[in-house]
């Protein structure tokens, strides 16, 4: 076997010899390995029949050029015996002997795998481009830009959204960490650097708000997030994050605050304008009762006084509610006596309870400290509201106002207060509705008992400001228990109750027809 014959037989590429008409004369074994066709099968018909119809004209032109003595290279595809498409990179040259062209020699390299890889890469590139375009569009809609920084190489990259956020074309400046910081308002740069250091040291996510100064001097408010990644040695290798323009949110927030302030000021003014004559009516009614009047006239005056007091209460509720909504309601922190608060509530509601024939009890556990630090006025307001509701919705039976110690430390004490009645009770649905603004248990309740539906809403907010929470236990026809917890401060040395734990015990006989008193 000659050297040429050995190369011909063992070449992994398809090597063919054609006559001047393109008819296959000889092919190496690789043609069967690659295409599945034997050389004999290929020799029985013209090679052009195996080529894709769309590429036949191109290949015929190439063969014509070879016949003029010009070597040619081209790519083409055929289907193998299984029907799969194969791609080849082919070189064809003329075979000349004694100055005469006697045939055509071709070498075809199978590039199918390469073509498939190129197609996959092209798809991935197209998908990446589409994702990048979608990300850019999403960032534009969200007014957001992303960035990435390598603390080891100091290399940094910005998304198109960052350039847009800074108000400059994306080709105008190269991304740098110092350039990034320079866009942040000077007063906010220290906070940004502090957050960046925390993220680097602890590899944690940090959020921040800052102002940026765009090209041209426009001021924008931004919300940002910083995230860091570290290697196995704990060295930061990647820092990335985003900035989002929240200027419009800030503007809407400021408009809302201004509107809330305006509403609160208006309600305060109107409440003053209404309360002043209402107080005057109540005061003159009291003076009028001191004069000589018939019983019928006295009854009219008392009704006028009652209506004026109701009006004053409604105005006070609306004013408190507006203050809570505007965030202007603040609690005092002063020493007070819990027993004094109970006495004040009892003085106000005892007459109403007596007029309806209801028994009224105030019970405070001996373990509850009497001297507390907090807001006695607001605590009294909550207890008064609950007690008034209990009397309003109870036809017969009793009202029990109780305080219990939950926990106590050297500085703080948590106390549970409850108001229990034997009234009409509530359904499960009503128990959730009564804490919504301007809502009562039912429309018939409003017609029968009156009120704005703000009392419990205000009470819940006040209890929340006292670091406490509300609970309601009730069943229709079986009464209700409204309970809340509240936290108060303790003065040094006042963490004990008024009764000594070491006082001598006495046997005491108490006679009372009430089972609550007997307990």
TrEMBL record:
It comes from Paenibacillus cisolokensis. Its EC number is 2.7.13.3. It holds the Pfam family HisKA. InterPro entries: HATPase_C_sf (IPR036890), HATPase_dom (IPR003594), His_kinase_dom (IPR005467), HisK_dim/P_dom (IPR003661), HisK_dim/P_sf (IPR036097), PAC (IPR001610), PAS (IPR000014), PAS-assoc_C (IPR000700). It catalyses: ATP + protein L-histidine = ADP + protein N-phospho-L-histidine. The chain crosses the membrane at residues 85-107. It comes from the Bacteria. Residues 108-138 form a coiled coil. Residues 269-490 form the Histidine kinase domain. Keywords: ATP-binding, Coiled coil, Kinase, Membrane, Nucleotide-binding, Phosphoprotein, Transferase, Transmembrane, Transmembrane helix, Two-component regulatory system. This is histidine kinase. PROSITE patterns: HIS_KIN, PAC, PAS. Residues 206-258 form the PAC domain. Residues 1-70 form the PAS domain. Signal peptide: none annotated.
